[in-house]
Amino acid sequence: MEIRWLGHDSFFLKAGRKVLYIDPWKVSGEKADLILVTHDHFDHYSKTDIEALYKNGTRVFVGAGGGDYEKVRPGMKFESNGISIETVSAYNVTKFRAPGKPFHPKDYGGVGYILTLDGKRIYHSGDTDMIPEMRSIKGIDIAMFPVSGTYVMTVDEAFDAAMIIRPKFVIPMHYGSIVGTEEDAKRFLSLCSQNSIDSYGKHS
């Protein structure tokens, strides 16, 4: 299995001949069998990128919106192109655009995804804070957490989430484009490695 962070929250995953993208934004590459979008903010839901990666038979799933594509909401379990997919909640509890108005409200319907790919359970948390629902997420091999703060978890909050979920490997995301720096990613990985969680990919 191949996993590549493509910047911000975008990932490329490949197992055998299956090609999957999560939140493709400002990316290019192989045509997709499956595209998963966590929510419809511009830096996650890019029709330009989706159309560039689309081929006959590509399926596209979008949380919190979706336009012409297949819509998903938290709490779904289904299979597409031989890949098992679960959708989980992703929302803010401490990040607000104005008093009482979170950037990603719970009722907005944004999602994270848990995939079973090549025998591994992979969790992409989406744009979220550390939320109570994370306590029910079990058996994760690889987890992708945002680390930039402002709109999503801070480094320390992402580390706390990792300690709750206890994946075997972590990958930091949501940094380097809009908010957050590579130093945020490195500090997150350092905290995880000190507590027996390894990193996977760019900073390994």
Describe this structure in words.
- The protein has 204 residues and is an alpha/beta fold.
- It is globular.
- It is built from three helices and 15 strands.
- The chain has helices spanning 47-53, 155-165, 182-193; strands spanning 2-7, 10-15, 18-22, 34-37, 59-63, 70-72, 77-80, 83-89, 96-98, 101-102, 111-117, 120-124, 142-146, 169-173, 198-199.
- It has one domain: 4-Layer Sandwich (Metallo-beta-lactamase, Chain A).
- It is 15% helix and 34% strand.
- The chain has a seven-stranded mixed sheet with strand order 7-8-11-12-13-14-15, covered by helices on one side. A six-stranded mixed sheet has the order 1-2-3-4-5-6, with no helix packed on it. The chain has a two-stranded antiparallel ribbon with strand order 9-10.
Kindly estimate the percentage of residues that lie in beta strands according to DSSP. Answer: 25-35%
Question: Which regions are unreliable across 5 or more consecutive residues at pLDDT < 50?
Answer: none
Assign the CATH class: Alpha Beta
The structural class is: alpha/beta
Largest sheet: 7 strands, mixed
Average residue-wise pLDDT: 95
Keywords:
204 residues; alpha/beta; Metallo-beta-lactamase, Chain A; 7-stranded mixed beta sheet; 3 helices
Short characterization:
Helix content is 15%, strand content 34%.
